[in-house]
Amino acid sequence: xxxxxxxxxxxxxxxRQRHQRQLDRRAPWRRRRRDHLRGREGLHLDGDHxxxxxxxxxxxIRVNAVSPGVITTxxxxxxxxxxxxxxxxxxxxxxxxxxxxxxxxTFIYLASDAMSGYVTGQVIEVNGGQYMP
Length: 133
What we know:
Helix content is about 50%, strand content about 10%. The chain is mainly alpha-helical. The chain has two domains: about 10-45, no CATH class; about 60-133, no CATH class. The protein has a two-stranded parallel sheet. It is globular.
């Protein structure tokens, strides 16, 4: 079974992919972030996610994403060296790595209709300022 049989293909996908390749050349970090922010049905939650959000707004489904930076988790304890973590920490304006507890508040905020019922189509960065423009 081919991927296009599983995931519907957008009519403008070719144009979007060419545009995305141009952006990737200018800012390689966007490609890395985009790759892990891909949603189901081929929606890009970084940049082009507004189109997918518009499709789902008629059904009152809110489409948002959380984009965490370097978060101290068992993954980093196992796969990152102390030198790598120190190098990543040097790129963060807050000069420290994040914790899972610091991300939890963002998820609670997005899950609550009372707090974020009118928030949709957003990518919330939880990264200590690492990707500030």
